Amino acid sequence: MASKFPVVIKIGHAHSGLGKVKVDNINDFQDMASVVAVANTYCTVEPYIDSKYDIHVQKIGVNYKVFMRKSISGCWKTNTGSAMLEQITMLDRYKLWIDEVSDLFGGLDICALEVVVGKDGKEYVIEVNDSALTLLGDSQEEDRRHIADLVTSRMQAICRPRTPPPEEQIPPPVGPRGILGSLSSLTHSETPPPSASDNPSLSSVGRRESQTSQSSTVSSGRLPDPPPRPFQRQGSQQSNPPEDTEDTMKNLRKTFAGIFGDM
Q1: Cα–Cα distance between 139 and 119 in angstroms, integer?
Q2: DSSP E strands: which ranges in the chain?
Q3: Pick from 60, 202, 214: nearest CA to 135
Q4: Residues 113, 57: contact at Cβ < 8 Å?
Q5: Residue 102 near residue 95 (C-beta atoms within 8 A)
Q6: Residue 134 contacts residue 113 (beta carbons within 8 Å)
Q7: Which of 35, 90, 92, 213 has its CA 20 to 30 A from that of 241?
Q8: Nearest-5° angle of CA 100, CA 105, CA 108?
Q9: Measured between alpha carbons, how far is 1 from 169 in angstroms, rounded to an integer?
């Protein structure tokens, strides 16, 4: 256990060098453990790296920058106290690291990572940030403009209202009414209207029927029966015969008497 000291205890999610304590032995570690126990938050423990400087890699859209920060105040925290800041060349491995971080979290457009370079020359990635990154150097105003342009372009691409689709023509109903309507329209459009010669009127049919009945009566040799009088009951006709019927009967008697008397 003693061979692993010193260590760095980080309490909570503080940044900019806050909440970090360097512990050199087991006694100090136990004291810090008692403090964290009443802090109502979590803590992490990592090995201490005797650093020479640290590197800040940032990605804003398609713009990449790398800064080297070296403490000149003698503090073991390179981001605390007086420090010398310098923008350096973007190496391929730094670009690969930041792109992998972006892809790891679903394709971040804005992200950054912190790298500590030890006195032995080894590089250690100790922190990853999303859009809550810290802008460094004299190009902060340029970085803010890149962020604003990136956000604006994303909003125009994603938040722009879509044009409504053209109105589609509603097809006619397919129910029984629709089918009957379509059949009737086809019937009326394809079948020509009947002419007067094809469909005789009722009056002409009546005339033809009357002529046919008259001709059949004449050919049979008997007179047609007189039409019944409207609204006249049968009993009244038998009890009150008309006068012309009596005259006719008298004439027939005289005729038969004359014929049979001569014989």
Answers
A1: 29
A2: 7-11, 20-23, 43-47, 51-60, 63-71, 83-88, 110-118, 123-129
A3: 60
A4: yes
A5: no
A6: no
A7: 213
A8: 80
A9: 80
Report yes or no: 72 and 130 within 8 Å, Cβ to Cβ. Answer: no
Write the single-letter amino acid at 153: S
Q: Which residues pair with 106 in a beta bridge?
A: none
pLDDT of residue 109: 94
Q: What's the whole-number mean pLDDT along residues 229-235?
A: 48
Per DSSP, the three-state class of 189 is helix
CA dist., res. 113 & res. 81, Å (int):
20
* Token pair 């803010």: residue: 144
Write out the two tokens for 184. 């009737």
Asked whether 72 and 83 are in contact (CB, 8 A), the reply is yes
- One-letter identity of residue 206: G
- For 41-93, the DSSP string reads S-EEEEE---EEEEEEEEEETTEEEEEEEEESS--S-TTSSSEEEEEE---HH
Quick check: 130 pLDDT over 80? yes
Whose tokens are 């900019």? That residue is: 16
- Residue 76: per-residue pLDDT: 78
